[in-house]
């Protein structure tokens, strides 16, 4: 069952990743390079060099889940993430669906 949503924390691995890596290899990258605990319940996002393959590593109760998407044509556009930004769920969904936002303007709203 696909159980990822906006309630999870997502972490993007900024370097290219060897897509031959599976649970143990990706967990090692999470622990050694992202300095995060792979079993925390957070979701870790990996892209290959050509940005045609995407893997999501997630710990659920009882074990790891690996989501994998391979594009037959085109490539993923990595999200623009600020250093202090922890959530990029919307950008991740847009990236997976192949949607690139060229310009976005946020309108002023009343704040109480």
TrEMBL record:
<dbReference type="InterPro" id="IPR008878">
    <property type="entry name" value="Transposase_IS66_Orf2"/>
</dbReference>
<protein>
    <submittedName>
        <fullName>IS66 family insertion sequence element accessory protein TnpB</fullName>
    </submittedName>
</protein>
<dbReference type="Pfam" id="PF05717">
    <property type="entry name" value="TnpB_IS66"/>
</dbReference>
């Amino acid at each position: 069952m696909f159980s990822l949503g906006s309630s999870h924390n997502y972490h993007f691995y900024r370097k290219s990743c060897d897509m031959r890596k599976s649970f143990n290899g990706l967990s090692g990258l999470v622990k050694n390079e992202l300095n995060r605990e792979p079993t925390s319940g957070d979701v870790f996002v990996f892209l290959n060099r050509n940005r045609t393959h995407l893997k999501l590593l997630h710990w659920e109760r009882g074990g790891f889940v690996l989501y994998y998407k391979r594009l037959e044509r085109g490539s993923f556009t990595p999200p623009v993430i600020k250093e202090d930004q922890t959530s990029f769920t919307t950008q991740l969904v847009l990236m997976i669906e192949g949607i690139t936002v060229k310009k976005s303007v946020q309108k002023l709203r009343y704040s109480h």
